[in-house]
Amino acid sequence: MADNDNVQSGKNFGIGTAQKVEGYFLKGSAHLDWGVKDRLSRIFNPRSGKTVMLAFDHGYIMGPTSGLERLDLTIVPLIEYADCIMCTRGALRSVVPPTLNKPVSLRYSAGSTVLTDLNDECIMDIEEAVRLNASLLAVMVAVGDREHEGLTIRNLTKTIDLGTKYGIPTMGVTAVGKELVRDARYLAMASRVCAENGAHVVKTYYCEKDFEQVTNSVPVPIVIAGGKKLPEKEALEMAYRAINEGAAGVDMGRNIFQAENPVAMIKAVREIVHNNAKPDAAFKLYEEWKK
Ligand code: 5RP
Fold it and tell me: Which CATH architecture has domain 34-41+48-290?
């Protein structure tokens, strides 16, 4: 027990120095609770305000797609270069070494696969996310999907309610249905629906035209998915444009793990996201690191 015979009166009260009122570096996040901010600060670098998330959750709908046949061989060596990893609980428990200590964006909704009908999903128990020390809960939201729109928005809403109990933020992942066009009008609508329903982060696609309308109409950070594999230089150009048009980072999968040299590629993406390198400079570095 503390010895209370010798309690000394405090002397150093800093009288005359007002306590600083701290702001918070992420868009739309100033009023969030401490635990949520702490987790977001592990994902987004407080210095650059940006993140490079490495997405390798594709197997939950696609099985062993190209580049993900052996997560232990292709993905684990990339993890040290990512600010955050986005994956399923199965991948986490089976191959991701906990000693790497990276914040996890946990794939929190799951259901149907590419073989049937996408987006027919449910969500996991929140205790499972707590056990896995998730820093972010990633939920698919299929705006415009006639059959599953309501279900996926309810999944998002429920996830935010559950996550909020434990201080875990939620990321709405906009799924684009087969018949929907990935233009700024649609992406802004889908992303805004996620944010209005309480998503703390939104993951969506980049579009060449008017992407700034997407980032400006969404009051929380947006990260972009990379989409289908592009030649490395084009993928770096896309990342550059997205960041310069208001994205707070990338949540990239295929354009990293299917690159000719995935380690060189994730490092080059980092140069763009955190150091605002121009695409030509980042590609030059990629070529050097690839050797
Ligand atoms: C799947 C996802 C993927 O994580 C996402 O599409 C990112 O990967 P990629 O850069 O390969 O598009 O959300 O539902």
Answer: Alpha-Beta Barrel (3.20)
